[in-house]
Specification:
globular, 4-stranded antiparallel sheet, Immunoglobulin-like, alpha+beta, 13 strands
């Protein structure tokens, strides 16, 4: 049974007939009860479902980074994950149905001011080294103590890796020791920055593909 919380004109929570009432971030929603599908999905619907599954499967393990990278965008009506999904879906899917793939060079895990261009990556004896320019840009309100977030993805084992503690911009470099099962094949690396309050965030930069062996 639904419960009206603010009088006859207010939202309600629970089931009432053929609708369900709920609330998220102070916004009241009403939706119809789920109806079991009787018709088979069309090819277009299957194409969209496949794209959705492929991208969400990649983004979900990155939730902690996406909360930072997209945390300041449309937060009143959309979750950071929703915004990240919409920002990526039309750009990163390649191939033809059902053989879709992700173009890692187009993936973004953070959206903000556009900066970068001096970063470098290298792997030596099981250590991934990422370096960046420490010169501050006042136009972007960059600070020495901005956090630098580095993400490594290994598609061969479908796992992500990052530094145990995010380094600061002034450090200029970070070393990430690769576990043994990471030391094979190729990996993809992204980097973005955020101030301590996570309010001033840069757009993520794809640093490229690197041999991990």
């Amino acid at each position: 049974m639904g419960v009206i919380r603010k009088g006859a004109n207010g939202g309600f929570k629970g089931k009432a007939g053929s609708v369900i009432g709920s609330s998220w971030k102070g916004i009241d929603y009403i939706k119809g009860l789920y109806k079991k599908r009787t018709k088979p999905a069309t090819e277009e619907q299957l194409m969209q479902q496949t794209k959705f599954t492929l991208l969400m499967r990649f983004l979900l393990p990155l939730k902690v980074f996406i909360r930072i990278g997209y945390g300041q965008r449309k937060t009143d009506t959309h979750t950071p994950m929703n915004v990240a999904f919409q920002d990526n879906i039309d750009r990163v899917i390649t191939g033809d149905y059902p053989d879709y793939a992700l173009d890692y060079s187009q993936v973004r895990i953070a959206e903000g001011y556009s900066a970068g261009g001096s970063e470098s990556i290298a792997v030596d004896e099981g250590v991934l080294t990422v370096a960046w320019d420490t010169l501050l840009n006042e136009m972007y309100e960059q600070r020495d103590d901005d956090r630098v977030y580095v993400v490594l993805y290994h598609p061969g084992i479908d796992q992500f890796l990052t530094a145990p503690t995010p380094p600061q911009r002034a450090d200029g470099t970070v070393d990430i020791t690769l576990p043994n099962h990471f030391r094979t094949g190729q990996g993809h690396v992204w980097l973005f920055t955020a101030d301590r309050k996570r309010l001033n965030v840069s757009r993520s930069v794809y640093l490229g593909e690197v041999a991990l062996a």
